[in-house]
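Example 3.2
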Amino acid sequence: MNLTIEEIALLEYVYDQAHRDIHRNVDVPANAAGSVEAMHGVARRLVDVGVFRLASIADDLNITQLGLDVVDDLRRQRSDRPVRAAELRLALIQWLYGHYLDSTTPQIAEDFLASGRSYFAGQPFSAAEIVQAVVYLSEKGLVEGRSIDQSVHLIQPRLTAKGVDCAESGKPVSEFLNPPQAPSGPTFHVKIDRSQNVTVGTQSNFTQNNTSGIDPAVLVQLVHFAAVARQSLPSSGLDEQQQIVAEQLSQELEEEAASDAPNRGRLRRLGDRLVEALAPSAETALGGMVTALGQQAIAAITD
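Structure, written as tokens:
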């Protein structure tokens, strides 16, 4: 579900006011400019997507169970610090790549806060997080700029040639810096017109000790599906926000399948959500192939 920052803010406000009671009526608040009417418009859009229900003709709101689940998921995502850091690094690379294409240079790395990429799960990144991410990217040779004693932020940050390669690879920063080993099983290289090569094959270099009772071969299928889904995103035809959602789901699925005690129910839910996220690309040859891999893996975990 793709929600705007304003929609997320209202959803979380009603969530907090309702205290998880789906029958509690909550008044629509005014927005930052003091307009209640503008927020009614936001509320009506959220009613249409099913996270709110109109409680009365006065436009009081009830949050639905779907709304509770969406906020719970957003807050869980925000608390996942490795994923949050990875998303910020990628967002910074993409922001600076836009400047690279426009032949411009931001005055200071803190300017990123004013960009449309400075939010994660509806919450802005902090200035401290940006400093930490820029330092990391600089140490890895992807970003350069000037440092002065009076500022913790990098002055006139820009991508290095390696940083441009990272942006154009379409890969998460960590994957660009640490490319995965090639699968050692049978491998097929698929070339789709106007797209990159995507490798699809079996992986025999995945090892795991777990006490979940799930067949390790099924976990291999799930990890493989997650990896192929992530690799295919630049050629999937999905828009940027859809790619971000699919990438995050693939990472969560891979992490759960590779954990010491994978949960069968969570694996099914993540697998279903990833297939759903990839659905808009399923009519293409590449998208259909990746979706089929997912459906097979989900069927295996369900058996």
